[in-house]
Amino acid sequence: MANSERTFIAIKPDGVQRSLVGEIIKRFEQKGFRLIAMKLIQASEDLLKEHYIDLKDRPFFAGLVKYMQSGPVVAMFTDFLLR
User: Fold this and answer.
1) Which strand (E) or helix (H) includes residue 25?
2) What highest taxon heads this organism's lineage (predicted)?
3) Which of these, 2, 29, 1, lies nearest to 83 by C-alpha position?
4) Does an H or E element contain 10, and which?
5) What is the pLDDT of residue 3?
6) How far is CA 63 from the centre of its chain?
7) Mean pLDDT (the chain, rounded)
8) 1 has pLDDT over 60
9) Model confidence at 80, in pLDDT bands (50, 70, 90)?
10) Residue 2 phi/psi, 5° resolution?
């Protein structure tokens, strides 16, 4: 089996709201990503703060967390074949 790299991809609230989930997944698949798992979630403030911990000191951090809580997010794991 070829080497692969596991990747996390999130479709943010505006992409979900605008019904772009299928098109976004299609584009990743065309680039060689293979969908392993997918879940529609409403991310909690605690989860988002943990996910974006490296940005906590940036001035936009609070707005980012608020935006990501504004609607559902599609969370996905993919494999990408390394060539």
Assistant:
1) helix 21-30
2) Eukaryota
3) 2
4) strand 4-11
5) 78
6) 17
7) 94
8) no
9) confident
10) -70, 155
